[in-house]
Design goal:
By secondary structure, the protein is of the alpha+beta class. Strands 1, 2, 3, 4, 5 and 6 form a 6-stranded antiparallel β-sheet that branches. A 3-stranded antiparallel β-sheet has the order 7-8-9. Strand 3 and strand 4 form a beta hairpin. The longest helix has 98 residues. The radius of gyration is 43 Å and the shape is elongated.
Length: 634
């Protein structure tokens, strides 16, 4: 069945008395725009109109797309929301024969109109009030907990479906809602791309649907409550809050996450790290809620990417054994001060583990007896050279040369002693690992750029192929039109001759009847006229048969033309579908590779950031500090 378009609903809404079956809506008046036409709020699946009836405001949802099980779904959703008594939802009625469009009845959804501000509009107005945004984030978190406790998922949490009414939240648009009782059914929509995980598809349908959207909205509201300037700095607010689909496809290159990570605010840094890890979940059903993830006990069973999981396990293993391995390289009596040394494996640990580690700054540990003995020996040599020179045993030049040689030897010995210290070796290992991580990150960045260029090339080839096929189809349509026109011209020419002959016979018949009327007496005129008409009718019969034969032949030729071009068009339509499928598969494979490479890049960047942070613990492991410690200077 052909479903009505928005313009069809516009026409029907102008006459509610004839278009609606519901008595309240039939007596209502639709709210109009400045042109006097019903004002719709249009989405991807429906147009919503406001109808005022007897002082009450109703929202009438007219479906632009419909599914066979919509009535069943809305019945289950309605019963669940009614029994749950949640303050965040609005009661509704699914009217099977709701609106009449072009003499046919179609279903609508009728619910009370909610006068509120969309979430992004409210945030834009109150972004200069951090307290209001913080309260909004807490209210949103509480609403999500309430829904989750009843195993309900809205399915499309986004700015347009969350209204702020007197500081309280209301949810609208229940097309993609999951409630208990809808298990086993597919989802008919995948939500707003700026609020959904890139892996979301119609196969995902369950109580976990809102988890990723909760992260997007909760992190955005919390970040804006701390840094209101992010709204203008990131130039957002039309179809998003702080994040868009680009941030989810390429978290390593996300400007919003980078600004949060470099903000210097501990809360924003932690939220940035946690949200980046959530984006890396492949299994959408395993994405934890923000409240669970911010509590370490809430991440007991995360599903990590293979590379990330290996790095995590190896990092934890190295973290456990690192103090023993490093202390074993020192004499037993020197091992104690090294307990506070942080292991480089923290680069592989997730932020919720790092948040509970409190590494100490690494210092050069005593004893320095050998080093001081080297310096003392050099001082003794210098004193001896001076005494020998004063006593006249050595010339000044020889004494200076010997002193310079001793100085060079002493410095070389101290440098060697410093380079062989375990603290410096640990620092050197971290620096080498950091360089390796940066090299790998640069290599992955080049690979991502190469893959993106390949994807652009694939899309360009697809565009050209599609344009070529469409051009060929247009040529076929032109050829079919021209051939049909030629056939019509031939038909008109053939019929013209037949018509002319028939008209000539008609004129002869009329003339002969006129002569008979003038020359034959009235009693014999009828018989003569009948004879004349019979003779000319016999003459016209071959012409009529010929005309019919010509028309039949023309129809046969038209059918042949249609069949010929229809078969050719079918071939091109098949090729078009194959081109889109093949190029779509190639583009999908490249998208997956890009996501995987972005995951690797993010892992490298995360490790690089942690290694840099750990290197700061080794700030005092320097040659200058080493010399100060030898000289008993703290």
């Amino acid at each position: 069945m052909q479903w009505p378009t928005m313009s069809d609903y516009q026409d029907a809404m102008q006459n509610p008395g004839l278009s609606f079956a519901d008595p309240e809506l039939r007596s209502g008046i639709p709210v109009t725009d400045r042109l006097g036409l019903p004002r719709p709020i249009t989405g991807g699946f429906a147009s919503v109109y406001q109808v005022v009836s007897n002082g009450r405001k109703w929202a009438v949802r007219c479906f632009l797309r419909h599914h066979q099980d919509s009535e069943q779904r809305y019945a289950v959703i309605g019963r669940t929301l009614s029994s749950s008594r949640l303050p965040y939802t609005v009661a509704f009625q699914y009217l099977r024969d709701g609106i009449r469009v072009k003499n046919k009845w179609y279903p609508i959804l009728k619910m009370e109109w909610v006068d509120g501000e969309p979430l992004h509009t409210y945030v834009a107005k109150h972004r200069s009030k951090p307290g209001a945004l913080k309260e909004l984030a807490e209210a949103f978190s509480h609403m999500c907990r309430e829904l989750r406790s009843r195993s309900i998922a809205h399915g499309d949490l986004q700015h347009g479906n969350i209204l702020v009414v007197d500081g309280k939240l209301k949810l609208v648009d229940y097309d993609g809602m999951y409630v208990p009782g809808l298990d086993g059914l597919p989802s008919h929509e995948v939500g707003h791309p700026n609020y959904q995980h890139p892996n979301r598809s119609e196969d995902h349908f369950g109580p976990y649907l809102d988890s990723f959207s909760e992260w997007v909205i909760y992190v955005s509201l919390t970040a804006l409550s701390v840094r209101p300037d992010l709204w203008d700095q990131l130039n957002v607010g039309d179809e998003q809050l702080l994040f868009s689909q680009r941030d989810f496809m390429n978290p390593a290159g996300s400007r919003a996450l980078r600004i949060m990570r470099e903000s210097g605010d501990p809360l924003l840094e932690r939220l940035s790290q946690e949200f980046r890890q959530v984006i890396m979940f492949d299994d959408i059903s395993s994405v934890p809620s923000p409240q669970a993830a911010l509590d370490p006990s809430g991440l007991k069973h995360p599903v990590w990417r293979p590379a990330q999981l290996g790095g995590l396990l190896n990092g934890i293993a190295r973290k456990i054994r690192a103090p023993q391995d490093r202390n074993a390289a020192l004499p037993q009596e020197k091992a104690g001060p090294q307990v506070g040394v942080a292991a480089s494996s923290t680069g592989s640990l997730p932020s919720w583990v790092q948040g509970h580690l409190q590494p100490e700054a690494v210092r050069l540990s005593p004893p320095f007896s050998v080093d001081r003995a080297v310096v003392g020996g050099y001082a003794a040599v210098v004193f001896a050279l001076y005494r020998f020179h004063v006593a006249g045993y050595l010339s000044l030049q020889v004494a200076l040369w010997c002193g310079a040689g001793g100085c060079i030897g002493t410095v070389a010995a101290l440098i060697w002693r410093f380079l062989t210290r375990p603290e410096f070796r640990q620092k050197k290992a971290l620096m080498d690992e950091l360089k390796a991580q940066r090299r790998e990150a640069r290599r992955v960045e080049k690979a991502i750029k190469k893959l993106e260029k390949e994807k652009e090339a694939v899309l360009e080839r697809e565009r050209k192929s599609v344009e070529n096929i469409l051009h060929r189809l247009s040529l076929l349509a032109s050829e079919e039109r021209e051939e049909t026109e030629r056939l019509e011209s031939w038909l008109q020419g053939q019929l013209k001759n037949v018509v002319q002959l028939r008209e000539a016979l008609n004129r002869e018949e009329a003339e002969e009847l006129a002569k008979a009327a003038n020359s034959i007496q009235l009693p014999f005129l009828g018989k003569r006229a009948s004879s004349i008409m019979k003779r000319y009718r016999q003459k016209r019969e071959p012409l009529l048969r010929k005309e019919e034969k010509i028309r039949l032949e023309a129809e046969k030729r038209k059918d042949a033309i249609r069949r010929k071009y229809s078969s050719q068009e079918q071939i091109f339509h098949t090729k078009l579908a194959e081109v889109k499928m093949n190029y779509g598969k190639d583009a999908g494979d490249l998208d997956k590779k890009i996501r995987d490479e972005n995951a690797r890049l993010m892992s490298y960047r995360e490790t690089e950031s942690n290694l840099s942070r750990e290197l700061r613990l080794y700030a005092e492991v320097s040659f200058r500090t080493y010399l100060r410690r030898i000289a008993f200077i703290r």
